[in-house]
Design brief:
alpha+beta, 17 helices, 6-stranded mixed barrel, elongated, 3 domains
């Protein structure tokens, strides 16, 4: 009989759960996928998912019914009718004032079925804890910290290919920069240059192998070592070289040396990588303060047969079946002294990592690179009161006037941050709501079963003098005990788990700053109080419609 009733309830509850789950999923999934670049927004309606959910639910229901079924099989029908929840537990309650007596009776009633009481309180508390975690999570997203790393300039404009990690695209022209400056009230700005040709450095073989092994297996590294040009025992290696004007130089993170020297003589800065938290990877460059760096600026290559040494006029003249390589033919070398060690923020870099990086002052760069110096991007700041007009102009420029251009701005980063934060607010709020709903349903179930299972007890109490008002006060006390227990449990769990979760989040998100709060608990206490008062009163009202005599006869 227990299993049949469970199946009947499952036939109603499981389809409702599947429908609600699909509705929640179809709304929340696109919100999450929208934040993940390159992943299409597709909500699956695979029958396998629904079948798995049904099977899991049925297994859970049957496991839950096993103990009640065994208990029910040992009880006769007459005993079941006379059953009052927790009637086997006896307590002596000393005589005291009416209010105190009702208070103690309510507390004793909750102790009749401790496991049910604990489950109800914990399920209510978990929703609050989850809400606290969501609040800590989203409130901890520090926009200032996020923008300090992202929005190093109000605007960065470049050929669209630059923002797609391809610096081989078209360079930014001086005419374009002039056009932007004539339409926007720029306060300050600067260019960053790249070369349209190849630049080499010369490094020890050990360093070359160490770097190449990050992207290649040992066999390929050996082939590369064999192919590369050698000079004075050093191997030729590609360099990612920047030429920066002062506006961009001032945005670099200098952790050793003096970057101002880059505008004087033959000085260079060695760039090191860092993680999201600003920790410098000391193994990401070999150069230190005072080291000499010889750079080879290549204007033309020659292509040759690696087996015979035959030289080909151009790459197009190389037969498909031969093994060939290339080497500098026309070039010039410039030697620099390392004046500073810096870290280049991602948004001002090439936006990908492959080889050693160095930075020159713009004038020194243009002098060395000559005709191969191209503007990679232009970064600039604007007046605060022109932000809306500037954003509108740049949007129109890159969409209609010069669609081959693209840009990033402080406003875009702020919108990106808000969208990212909103995703977690929605997800966390939805999970809190679902968990809270489960808690409220458990609370309602505890109140309902408690009142209906104790109808005979209530009738006896009223028959010996307890008034309906006193009975309702006792039930309200029980509800308030649930509310108080949930609030205290939530506070206890929040104090324990919030710092632990915050530590995990700080390791996941570099722009997260932990701020402990109990605000969600304070907000939910009035809600729990209202539920603790209204649910018992509403439930009792339905059970008390019959007279005391009728309820006693029914119990018999």
């Amino acid at each position: 009989m227990v299993y049949i009733e469970a199946l009947m309830l499952s036939a109603i509850g499981i389809p409702m759960g599947l429908i609600l789950g699909w509705l929640f999923g179809s709304v929340l999934t696109p919100v999450v996928l929208k934040q993940l670049n390159g992943i299409g927004e597709a909500v699956s309606v695979s029958p396998v998912i629904f079948a798995g959910a049904v099977l899991f639910s049925l297994v859970t229901v049957f496991i839950s019914c096993m103990k009640p079924a065994r208990t029910a099989s040992r009880v006769s029908p007459i005993e079941a009718i006379r059953y009052t929840e927790g009637s086997g537990i006896k307590r002596i309650i000393r005589k005291s004032g009416k209010g105190t007596l009702l208070f103690k009776m309510a507390a004793a009633n909750l102790g009749r079925n401790k496991s049910k009481t604990i489950v109800t309180i914990v399920s209510m508390a978990l929703s609050v804890v989850l809400l606290c975690v969501t609040f800590v999570f989203t409130d901890g997203f520090d926009m200032d910290k996020y923008l300090s790393d992202k929005a190093l300039a109000d605007y960065i404009v470049a050929d669209a290919s630059y923002f797609q990690y391809d610096v081989s695209g078209a360079a930014l022209s001086e005419e374009t920069i002039g056009y932007i400056a004539s339409n926007i009230d720029t306060e300050d700005g600067g260019r960053t240059y790249r070369t349209s040709s190849t630049v080499y450095e010369y490094v020890p073989e050990d360093w070359y192998r160490q770097q190449m092994s990050k992207w290649n297996d040992e066999e390929n590294v050996n082939k590369l070592v064999e192919r590369e040009e050698k000079q004075d025992g050093l191997l030729q290696n590609n360099v990612m070289l920047y030429g920066m004007e002062n506006f961009c130089l001032d945005k670099l993170n200098v952790f050793d040396g003096d970057i101002s020297k880059l505008n004087e003589g033959n000085y260079i800065a060695a760039a090191y990588y860092s993680d999201d938290y600003g920790n410098i990877n000391q193994e990401s460059n070999w150069a230190k303060i005072g080291d000499k760096v010889k750079l080879r600026f290549v204007n033309k290559f020659e292509y040759y047969n690696m087996e015979t040494g035959e030289i080909y006029p151009s790459e197009d003249d190389i037969p498909e079946t031969v093994s060939w390589w290339y080497r500098p033919k026309e070039y010039h070398d410039v030697e620099y002294e390392v004046a500073a060690l810096v870290n280049i923020p991602y948004n001002l870099s090439y936006r990908y990592y492959s080889s050693d990086q160095f930075v020159l002052g713009a004038e020194n760069f243009k002098k060395a690179a000559a005709d191969t110096a191209d503007i990679m991007y232009y970064a600039f700041d604007i007046s605060d009161d022109t932000e809306n007009q500037s954003e509108k102009f740049m949007s129109e420029l890159t969409q209609n006037v010069m669609p081959y251009l693209d840009y990033e701005s402080k406003a875009i980063y702020e919108a990106e941050f808000s969208s990212f934060r909103s995703m977690f607010v929605i997800m966390g709020s939805a999970l809190s709501f679902i968990t809270g709903l489960v808690g409220v349903l458990n609370f309602l179930n505890a109140v309902l079963t408690g009142i209906f299972a104790r109808q005979r007890e209530f009738a006896v109490l009223q028959s010996v003098g307890m008034t309906g008002k006193q009975l309702k006060i006792m039930l309200v006390y029980e509800g308030l005990f649930y509310a108080l227990g949930a609030a205290l449990s939530a506070l206890f769990l929040n104090v324990i788990f919030s710092p632990l979760i915050a530590k995990l989040l700080e390791n996941m998100f570099w722009f997260f700053s932990f701020k402990f709060t109990v605000l969600p608990i304070l907000i939910t206490i009035p809600l729990f109080t209202i539920l603790g008062i209204t649910l018992p009163l509403i439930t009792y009202r339905f059970s008390a419609k019959k007279s005391i005599v009728e309820r006693l006869r029914k119990a018999e």
